[in-house]
Structures are given as structure tokens and as C-alpha cells.
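Sample 3 of the quickstart, ligand beta-L-arabinofuranose:
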Amino acid sequence: MKKLALYVSSFLMAVAAVASSSAMICSADNPIVQSIYTADPAPMVYGDTMYVYTSHDEDKASYFEMRDWHCYSTTDMQNWTEHGAVLGDSDFPWAEKNTAWAPQCIERNGKFYMYVPFSNGSGGGRAIGVAVSDSPTGPFKDAIGKPLLGPNWDYIDPTVFIDDDGQAYLIFGNPQLYYVKLNEDMISYSGQIQKISMTTEAFGVRPEGDERHPTLYEEGPWLYKRSGLYYLVYAASGIPENICYSTASSPVGPWKYGGVIMPRGEKGAAFTNHPGVCDYKGRSYFFYHNQRLPGGGGFTRSVAVEEFSYNPDGSFPTIHMSESGPAQIEALNPYKRTEAETICFESGIETENCSEGGINVANIENGDYIKVSGVDFREGAQKFTASVASSTSGGTLELHLDSKDGKLIGSCTVDGTGGWQNWKTVSCDVTGAEGEHDLYLVFKGGSGFLYNIDWWKFSSDNISDTGGIKPDENGYYINNSFEAGTEGWTSRGGAAITSASEEKFSGEKALFVSGRTSSWNGALKKLSSDTFVPGQKFSFSANVMQNSGETADISMTIEYTDASGEVCYPKVSVQSVPNDEWVHMENTEFMIPEDARNVSIYFESPEGEFDFYVDDFIAAVPGTVTPGPEIKFTKGDINSDGVRNVLDYCLALNGLINGFDSKASELAADTDGDGKAGSADLIAMQKFLLGIIDSFE
Ligand code: FUB
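Result:
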């Protein structure tokens, strides 16, 4: 018990402070979990989702009373969905109970490996176990039935990292840091456990340092690589802890001390801290813990997160604890089923395992509420449906916008269902929910527990069950005429985007794209994956014109991020646009690639920086042909230069192989007028050029 005794004595002063701390009133969105106390965050991005694994401090704990690890996920960095306890001390028969400290999870070859520290059940100190699952949200199982590492009093806080060459490393320890090379199976290792050199160059000078702690390093290492540099971020400086970092050109050092990231003395800080660093959707996030929840203290901690940007030289900025957390990355779609345990902030509720699978919200009492941040009701919701259960006589579920006392948009009566896990759906009408708002589910009723909720969703006549737009009677999902504004189109690069009346194909206005300083500048619109589902085909079309004085190409292009994180730019349609003429561009069968995310469509001209106009942009079901200007063409004159010669033959041949530049070229190449250009048309062109025929009639 040497290590435990040391920990206890170091923490005595802090414990005294905890005991005297009073509950704080907390009404913000950080910490990210309010239903239980969480600590030691370990973020992991898998697919398009950010997961965070946490340890779990028991309510009213007076030491590290920790029995299980929980998992939460988000796709917007404000609303977190709880996945419950995914692994616990009862899953490791060899471990001493109630000693479940800081975890980390990593994916390899479709399996998820969680590394967790315990006290060894048969003595000798701490030990590190490994559990495995087929899913990031568990269930995880002890992979080897014994400690992977240990026992040894130093062995806590494993961080796991797989380098570009496939070698996996586990780094761990307090106060000495160790590393070991994991085998590809991730549940065994090769070679000896190595000590990392604890020099002050590597980890800074601890002013009041002793034999065991000559450097700032304390515990909680977090290893990763960014732009060829390895980072080790860790809790430092003794009690209370701050967060510092070191960098190296190899995953095991030699390390060079980098400085303090999160200082001591932050409002609501606990005497420990613990980092987790992760990039997600092009942004960087720093996870840590504090004691900011009501009832919080050194042993009742809470995980929080901040967004940050690295300095240009790759060093860390100073990061402070905030109550608001990061900006929401994207709005929540309320027309898709949302798990009730998807929460930005809540008051009073608990969660539990649901008989239908997953988790449900429970222990709801009068006045409790859940805040869901940034919900986009778009043109307006008409109905709300929720799956509820109640062993008592239920209550009312009120829907408010922007605050728990804000505008009431609907109120659902929940009756008893005969059991806390007897699920029934209830619905109510909704009025006045348009555009983007924070949604508050406010629970009202008598005394005691009222009802449980498993999931909820809104509906509208215009929106499909998957949350996408329903096509109108013409098959159109989007029909932008630009009469009333830019209709969701935004600037790409430095271009100015306005709804202007100087030129238009139909109506009074068109989208005017001006002020371009580069050929890739233009106009862009985001395509929601709820409607524009990857792997499905759509028809995209628009009318475009330019008056640069010359004929020039205008292109309609999709921009998306693929599964490997690369940004791709497939062309939907490219048209050669004569000066001062409206031209129709159309691709009636464009497939959005299966692995596409963050999909946008944009117009640009690869040939210059001239202004151009777009009118009647339509996105529709596949095969939809849309109206455009009458196309002028002469059979056999593929480049519309007024003469029919060998160049036209070459352009027709190229068009058949690689696709035509414009609809006019394609129509001109269809010399027999059978609706498609083909080899018979090429033969006819040869005959024409050889003088065997003198017309294509
Ligand atoms: O949560 C228990 C211990 O406290 C962790 O293992 C340390 O990193 C510190 O956060």
C-alpha cells in the first residue's frame, strides 16, 4: 500500500478543501456530463463520431471510489449521447474492486481495445488490464483474464498510440514513466518494459522537487503525433496539478519540455487534472476534468472540453477552463430519432439501461429538464413524438425554446404505462418551432418520479422520416430562384454573393458571383446528408451566364471529405459558356460517393476571375430533367465556330470517349438525331468531310 499511502498523504490538504467546498450553481454546458461525476477523459474519433471514455467517481466519494468506465459520443461537440458503463471492475475477476482509474480506448482492425488501471487483487501494487469489444460503445470484455502489466505501484494511467509504421506503444506511470511496445494483437507485448528518462530537460524543473519527483511530470500521460512531431501531454507540478507537455521526434523520447497548457488556479479546478487531446472535423480539442458540478470536489470530478488552435510553430496555447465549452459544429436534426440521453445540459435526471437496448432517461421529477443545443427546426415542426414509460400516473412533457421558461411550442401528456420499462409512444402538436434554437424538454407533474423517456423526434409534412427534405411534386428537393436572397448559398474563397437583378434567366433576379480573386472562388451550398444521402444518385442543374467578353468554362462541382479524411472535388457538370448567353448545366444521374461526408456543391470558373450568374439551381430525384435556355447548335459543328471540319470530327471522337464539354456540342455530334451521339454519327461526319454526303438530313 506504499503508493496509496503516498497518494493519501499528498492529498490530505486537498481533501480538507473538498470537504469544506459548497455546491456550486452551474447552468452552463461544460462539464459535458451532469448526471454522474466523470474523470480522466480519453477522447477517440471513430468514423464521423467523437467518443470520450471516462472513469466514474461515485456520488459523495471521499477518496477515489471508482467502479466503472463510461462512454459518451457526439457529432457536434455540444450535445453528448450517453452509452452507459461500457466496462466495470466486475469484468476483471483478478482486480481489486473500486480502484478503476484512468482508461484509454483505441481501434485496430475493427476491434476496440481499452487499457485500464486497477489495484491488483492479490497485492503487489497497481496493474494494467486490457479489454476488447467489437463496438466503440462496448460491451468490453477482459481480453486475457490477468494483468497485461504489473503489479507495480507506479503502473497507472495507460496511454496508447499506434504509429504510422503500425507499431503500438503503451506509456504509463506515476511518478516514473514507462513504455512498452504492444504486439499487433494489442493484448500482448514484446521486449522489456522500459523506463523513460525523467530529466528536467524532458519534463521541466519542479521547484520543490524531491527524489521521486525531480521533474514537473506527475501522471496522466497522453501520447499522440501531429505533423511529424510526438506530443506527450500530462498532469504535472504535484498538488494541485496543472497540465504540461513535452515533444519528441520519436514516440518514446528523448522528450523536450514544452511548457504549461492549463495552469493551476482555474475557477472550479480539482486537485487532480487529466488531459486528452484530439482533432475532430478539422478542429482541435483539449479534454480535462474539474470539480465544477454541484457537489463536486477532488473525488467527485467532471469532464470538460475546450476547443483550441495550435500556435503556428506547433506549440500549445494556454488553455483555460470555460463554462460554455466549444462552439457547436453543426445543428442537430430534430426530424431524426434522437436518444433522450443526448444532452447538452440537464438538471435533476439520471440515466439507466433500457429494456429496448441502450440507455433511457430516468428518475424524472417535477421541474427537471434537459437542454439540447442548436436544434434546427428549418421551415417548422408540426408534431412531437416520444417513447415514454411510467409506473405511476405520468405527467407532462413541455417543449420550450431557448430557455426552460422560453416560448412553449408543445406539451405532451404522458399517462401511466404500467411499468418503468413498458414503452409507449405519445405525440402532441407543435407550433412556432422554426429555424435554429436550443430545445428544452421540461418535465412537469406531481411528486415522485414521473416517467422515463427513451427517444424523441419531431415531424413535419415537408420532411421525411430520415430527417431529409421530401421532394415536391416535380421531384425537386431544392429549387433556388434567388428572388428572395441568396437562399443558403455562401461565398467560396473571397467571392461576393448577392441576389441581383441585372441579369436573370427567369423571374426578376439571379445569384451574382463577383469579386473573385482566384479561379476557385465562387458560390457554395452545403448539402445535408439527411437528404443527399451518400451512395445515392441525384439530378443537379442550373442556368449560368457570364459577360467577360469571351467564351469560358463554368463548372458545378461537389466537395466532400472521404473516409481517409481527404477532401475530394468530383465535377458534376462543366459547360463552355459563350459571352452574354445563358447556358443550362445538368447532370441527372450524379452519385454522391458512399464514403462522402461534409458534402457541398459549388460553382466556379477554372478559367479566370470574371463575375458570373447562376439562376434556377435545382437538386432533384435522379433522372429529373429541368428547364433551360433553348440550345442553339448545327449538326457536325461541334465547337460552334460556323465551319464543319476535321477539328469537329476530333472533338466528336473525344466527346464520345471522355464526355462532351457542353450540351450544344453533344447535340451537334448527334448527326442522325436519334437522341445520342455514337459511332454512326462519326461515320456520317467522315462521309461529310470526304464529300460523300453534303448534309446530315
Ligand atoms: O482518477 C484517478 C486518478 O486521478 C487518475 O488515474 C489520475 O490521473 C488522477 O486523475
